[in-house]
Every structure is written in structure tokens, then in C-alpha cells.
Design brief:
The chain is α+β, with helices and mostly antiparallel strands and 346 residues long. The protein is built from 9 helices and 14 strands. The protein has 2 domains: 180 residues, 3-Layer(aba) Sandwich (Aminopeptidase), CATH 3.40.630; 139 residues, Gcn5-related N-acetyltransferase (GNAT) (Aminopeptidase). The protein is 32% helix and 28% strand. A 12-stranded mixed β-sheet has the order 6-7-5-4-3-2-1-10-11-12-13-14, with helices on both faces. A hairpin with a 2-residue loop joins strand 2 and strand 3. Helix 1 packs across helix 3 and helix 6 crosses helix 7. The longest helix is centred in the middle third of the chain and has 19 residues. The radius of gyration is 23 Å and the shape is elongated. The N terminus is likely disordered.
Amino acid sequence: MFDEVLIMSIRYASLTDLKFVTSIVCQTIQTIYSHYYPKGAVDFFLLHHREANITADIVSQNVFVLEVEKVLVGTVTIKEFEICRLFVLPQYQGKGYGRALLDFAEKLIAEKYKKIRLDASLPAKEIYLKRGYRETESHSILTENGDYLFYDVMEKDISMPNFPIDYDGKVFITKVNSENVEVKGVTLLFHFKELEISELPQVAKLYNELAFELKETTNDSYFDFETLSIENMLDTLKNAIQENRIKIYVAKHSVDVIGYISGTITSCFLPVSSVNKIGYIEAAYVIKDFRNRNVMKQLEERLVEYFKNEGVQFVELNVLSANITGKNYWNKSGYTTFREQMRKKI
């Protein structure tokens, strides 16, 4: 019997999240750190993690938040190969959220660096030791009222590829089995973000996968190709992005793009309408092994939010009549048929 699948979203923090991130940090410091440090040290931590510093890190796109059912429960800041400011609200601790943030940070850093560095507080040091971190320096700071703050600088070597994750002394490597259910004891973690150019080859591959799946499931006459070139698709997407014609959001599991959604803002088909622009979902796809996990829902929410910020009131998309799975999904997501397109072979 498998554990219940827990879907968590880790994304970049925006300035609209500032108050929540600050609250997560301050609540955790005041509640947890007071059991380990004197008042002067606690006040020092609060000053060090003040709103102005968090703001600067958000603007620099160094801050991530962990969201569960649209509630922000944790945060981590990543600066090159350093993990900073990892906090989970006290009432959500012991549920694996801190571990998920640390997994995410480690994997993100491992894409570019061969070691990880962090400053370990007294309550977190034992956790990091179990994860393979080792002390490299020890420091003490004399605070204003005469109290001392002690902390250790710790590092972890990640030069070995596909390094395992240590959960309380037990080593696992996150994976999904062929039945598309969660491996017992391992939480699937997805990262939703706007596309980066380095991720474009993976997205081009998924565009072609979508085309082949539609060919197989619909048998539509337009899908008359036998092969598709990733290079051609890559060039098409690059041109569209450079000309600012599409917006693409991706879902990542570890370092792999496992889904995407792309859209554009275009004119309403009816020139006399007061609705002069609409959001159009151009394509959307999630790899089969990761479906039924709210991945597409999270992607669609981000694209719709972009449309809203651009003053768009309506979102449209096209679905092939024979694509029953697609029609059912978008109907359940609140989309309704308002016009139909017809064709005739001549």
C-alpha cells in the first residue's frame, strides 16, 4: 500500500510574497531559536534576516518558497553554491517540508557546482551532519547586550554524479515507478517556473512528444508526419521567444523538465467586440508518468496569472474533437466551448 501522494510546489518568491517570507523567518526564529540561543542572539538573527535583506534577495531571484495547497509554509535562499535562510513554519515542521526544500536546494546547486556551503544554527546542525555535511569553520559573534551567538560553517562534497539523498541515516534516490504512483517514503517535488533558455532543448523535445501523442490518439489527417526534428522545433521556439511572441512556463522534477505550457496574447477574433485582446494557450503537455498530480493545473495557473497581469479577461484554447482526454481535462478546468471550427477536404 503506497503512501498518499503529497504534491508540493517550490517556486521563485516574488515581492508579493515578501510579507509571508518575512513572517515564516521571524516566526521560526522566535519560536525555535529561543530554545537554543540567548535573547541577544535571537535578536541578532531577526536583524540579520530583516525585511530589507529578504527584499534584496527576492529582487535578485535568490529566494524560493514552498507552497502546499496555496499556503506558503517554507522558504530557502540560494546564492551560487550557498544555502541560506532555510525555514519552515513551526506548525508545519516534522512533515518533510524542510527536507524537501533542502533536497531542492542541493539539486539546484549540483547543476553548476561541486560543493555546497551553509551556516548551521544549533537546532539544524545535527540534521546537516546526517545529510553528509562536515564542519569547516566555527564562529562566535558577541551581540549588543553581551550574549554570544555560535554557529558553524559546513560544506558538502557533491562532485559525485547523482548523489543520493540521506533521510535520517537512510539513503534513497527519488524515483517514480511505472504505475505512476509514489514510491513509499519518497515525496515527489515539482518546481514551476518561467522557461530559461538552457531548458529550451528539453521543451522542444516535449513539443514533439505532444505532436506524436496527438497523432496516435486522434488519427487526424493533419498529423501526417513520420519523424520530427528537434532542431527545427528548437529554432521555431527560439525565434518566437526572441520576438516576444510566446510565454512558456515549465515544471521540473529534479533537473528534468517534465511538463510545459505556452501561451500568447492575441486579438479577439471579433473586431467589433470591446474585448480587444485575449490570452491564448498555444500548447500544453505533461509527461505521462507525472500526470494526475496537479502539474498541469499549476502550470495553467501561472500562465493565467501572467495573462491577468497583462489586462486580459478571457483565455482561449483549441482542442481537437478526437482528443477526448484533452477536452475532458479543460472542461474540468473551467473552459467551455463557445464556438466550433469546421473543415472540409476538397
